[in-house]
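R.M. (postdoc): so does anyone remember the format we settled on? I'll just put the structure tokens first.
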């Protein structure tokens, strides 16, 4: 095999293979590459050395490529703001005056008693990016509130599933395992 190129009109043999023994046929382990020629001289390189060097470079390139892809993925996730974990920490069921307020995944802070289903979405009436809280309107309902001990019982307050602030509270709930309730009024249960 011979690769040729022209440089300023002169032909140079850039890469040739030949048998080291000088015969016309030989095993691939006896092949050598001849690089250069003409005025540049001749460099003999044994095939196994090139193979080993190329194999090592390929393995290093493969590892480098995998690391690069991983870093790109992590960077894109952080730039795009994609949450790496959007799982809620519990399951909540809330029934208030016979209506269902929450029946699904939710977050509950066991220290503060605050909970949310994470569904409430608001926007500024003006269409601006930011505004005063009184200028917010609800564009998708969702529930949040708190359950806290009060006077030996429990107090439950929430946003009625569609307001931007807490506006309804119930006093005197009793706790039974992971549920708090006032019969026929409010039942709030969590399943950790």
């Amino acid at each position: 095999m011979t690769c040729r190129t022209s440089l300023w009109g002169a032909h140079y043999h850039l890469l040739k293979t030949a048998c080291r023994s000088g015969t016309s046929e030989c095993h691939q382990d006896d092949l050598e590459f001849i690089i250069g020629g003409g005025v540049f001289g001749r460099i003999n390189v044994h095939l196994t050395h090139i193979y080993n060097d190329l194999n090592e470079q390929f393995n290093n390139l493969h590892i480098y490529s995998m690391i690069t892809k991983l870093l790109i993925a992590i960077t894109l996730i952080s730039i795009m703001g994609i949450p790496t974990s959007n799982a809620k920490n519990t399951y909540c069921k809330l029934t208030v005056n016979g209506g269902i307020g929450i029946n699904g995944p939710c977050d509950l802070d066991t220290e503060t008693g605050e909970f949310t289903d994470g569904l409430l979405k608001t926007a500024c009436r003006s269409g601006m990016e930011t505004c005063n809280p009184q200028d917010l309107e609800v564009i998708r309902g969702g529930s949040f509130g708190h359950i806290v001990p009060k006077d030996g019982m429990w107090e439950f307050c929430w946003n009625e599933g569609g307001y931007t602030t807490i506006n309804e509270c119930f006093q005197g709930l009793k706790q039974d395992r992971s549920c708090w309730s006032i019969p026929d009024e409010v039942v709030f249960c969590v399943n950790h």
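R.M.: ...and that's the designed sequence above, right after the tokens. Also worth knowing: The chain has two domains: 2-80, 90-191. Residues 2-80 form one domain.
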